Each structure stands twice: as C-alpha cells, then as structure tokens.
Amino acid sequence: MKTALPKFARAYLRALRQYLRPGARADKEAAQKLGLRAAAMKLATLDLAHLHDDCLHLLVSHDQPPRASDATVRRARAFFAEALTPMEESHRSLREANTGLKHSIRTLTQRSAELARANDKLHREMARRRKVEDSLRRSEAASVKLLEESGHMQEELRLLSRRLLTVQEDERKAISRELHDVVGQTLAGVNLRLSTLKVQSAASTKDLQRKIAVTQRLVEKSVAIVHRFARDLRPAVLDDLGLIPAMESFIAGFTAETGLPVQLSAWPGAEKRDGTVRTALFRVMQEALRNAAHHAHATQAWVRIANRRGTLRMEITDDGKGFKPDTAFLARANTRLGLLGMRERVEMVGGTFSIESTPAVATTIRVDFPRQDQIARPRPPRAS
Fold first, then answer.
1. What does the alpha-carbon distance between residue 134 and residue 112 come to, in Å, rounded to a whole number?
2. What is the chain's alpha carbon radius of gyration, rounded to the nearest angstrom?
3. Cα–Cα distance for residue pair 227/179, rounded to 1 Å
4. Does the CA dihedral 101-105-111-115 come out positive or negative?
5. Residues 241-286: pLDDT tens digits?
6. Residues 28-67: pLDDT tens digits?
C-alpha cells in the first residue's frame, strides 16, 4: 500500500491538473477511475481528502487573484466529489455486506441454538424410545411365554378330550355287553317261561292264554328295544365279525328307520387295521349318516372305503342341503358338536378329518388313515 500510494498520488495530481487546466473539458471519467483505484487500494475517504488537499496546494498559485483561486477550488471540489463517488458506493456495498453478514451470523447463531435444542430433544426421545423398546421386548418375552403355556394347556385339553372319548367308548362297550348278555338273556328267559306257561295253561281258561300272549308280545318288544339299544351303544358285530359287517348291519337298520338309502362300498383290507381305527371309522359313519338324514335332509348317501397307496380313506357323501365348513366348528348347535366329536375321534388315532360342503350342494366327509407304521402317536401330557 505504501509503495503504491506515491504512484497513485502522482496519477491523481496529473488528472487533477488536467481537470483544472483553463479551457479544458470537465473529464469526470478520469476522476471516477481514480476513485475506483482508491477503493481497490482500500483507501479511506479521509486519506483521499488529505491527498486531494495536498495536490490542490501544489496546483493553486498564491499569486492568483482570489476570484480565480475560488473558481479553481470549486472545480477541484467537483473533481474530488467525482472521485469520491465510487469509494462511497464501495463503502456502501461493504456496509451492506457487513450488515448482511451480521444478520447471517445472528441467523446462524439462532439456528445453532435451535439445532442444539432439537438435538437435546432428540436425545431425550431416543432415550424414551429405548425404554419403550426394552418394555416391548419384555412384554414380547412374556407374551411368548404365555403363548407357550397356552399351547401346552390347549394340548392338555385336547389329550383330556381324547381320553374322555376313549373312556366313553369303553363304557359303551361294557354297557352293551351287559345289555346284550345279561338283560337280553333275562328277557329271553322270561319269554321262554311265558311260552311254557301258555302251553301248560291250555286246559284252563282262554282269558289266561290271552293275557299271557299279550305279556309275551311286550317281552318280545322289550328284547328288540334292548338289542337296538345295545347296537347303538356298541354293536357286538363290530367286535365279533368286523367293521364291514357292522357297517352293513347298521346301514340296514338305519335305512329301515329313516328311509334314507345308503350305498356301501368297502375295501376288505380295512379289517386288518387296529381296533381303534375300525371303531373310529364306524362312529364317524354313524354320525355322518345321522346328520345327513336329520339335518341335511338328504335323499341318498354313499359310503366308500378304499386303499389310496397305503392310505385308508373313507368318504361319506350325501346330496343334502350342505353347510359352510369354515364356520361349522365354531357353531354351538348340537349338530356341529357331532363334527367336533368326529374330528377328535379321528385325530386321536392318528388320522386326518376334512369336510367339503357348500350350501345347497352335496357334502363329503373324508377320513384318511396312513399306514400303520406312519400313524403318529399323540404326545403324553406335560408334567404339571
């Protein structure tokens, strides 16, 4: 700056001398260029004023008349004003830039404070969320534990229901034997005695013979009722002759009772299955045909037992009104409790139970039992 100033001072002196020369045209452009140079050199306004005064003292002669000297000073003042204009504009721009910078600094300071507050709030929110996540993890662990316990309880209830079905079947078998072997034989003996009494009293009155005949018919009716009751509880033919004869016997009596014709097609190999499997097949057929007659109002039914690559399959189909299987197991009506019993009875001996039915369309109940070596045994109940 100190090296460039004498050069700038000489240039300013030359331009001012040219500007003050008598008869010279007022060259404002030269003054403005000098002002731009002064602004580029970052000279202050006071520095330029001192330089202007120094140059003016060199150019103004003391021998000049006062009027001429005043005119020179006025023209020099105009030159200085023109040189000062670019500096003032530069200083104004600097002041405005400085004002904008200060405003930007205030804005940045405010934003920094806001960011600090937001950051602090974010940290608090993160801490709160970590607490919530920890609580959720603990709750999830507790839910998983409760779900496991619920699964165990459900399995225990399932095993309990299967045990109840087994006990029920054993009780039915015992009652059937009692009715068939004891009560039936007793009534048959009574009937035989009445027949003997009827023959012995032939020489007596006819009124006695009529009473004995009436009693004999009542006993025969009672014997028939006991036999039917025994067949319903546990058909002896199922244990004595096998599954297929028991089905044929039941279907014959069922058709005679309800008027619903049933066609039976059975694979003889079904007789080789375990007794529990045969019992399950027979009970499912019983319940399915009763539903078809009493609830589906079917006009015909079919029972098919076949071998499907080692899988024993039984299908009971009727042409009744059908129902919605997806809601059948949720219903509380007694008709649907039969479905639950069928499913439980099949699954407890390792089979699968399914239903295909839609309203106003035929219904098919399907039971599948895999090969004997593939039947999964139910798990024992969990120890309390």
1. 32
2. 59
3. 8
4. positive
5. 889 999 998 899 899 999 999 999 999 999 988 888 999 999 999 9
6. 788 888 888 888 887 888 888 888 888 888 877 666 677 6
CA distance 301 to 296: 11
Tell me if 187 sits within 8 A of 226, measured CB to CB.
yes
Domain parsing of the chain, residue ranges: 4-112, 239-384
Coil vs helix vs strand at 24 = coil
Q: Which of 287, 276, 291 is nearest to 232 (CA)?
A: 287
* 231 in Cβ contact with 238 (< 8 Å): no
Q: How far apart are the first and last CA of the chain?
A: 100
pTM attached to this predicted model: 0.49
Q: What is the pLDDT of residues 103-145, one digit of tens each?
A: 777 888 888 888 888 888 888 888 999 889 888 888 888 888 8
- Per-residue DSSP letter, 252: H
What is the torsional sign of CA 247, 248, 254, 260? positive
Fold classified for 239-384: Heat Shock Protein 90 (3.30.565)
Residue from 338, 235, 218 nearest 282 by CA? 235
CA–CA dist 272, 282 (Å, integer) = 14
103: left (phi over 0), alpha (psi -120 to 50) or beta: alpha
Residue 208 and residue 213: Cα distance in Å, rounded?
Answer: 9
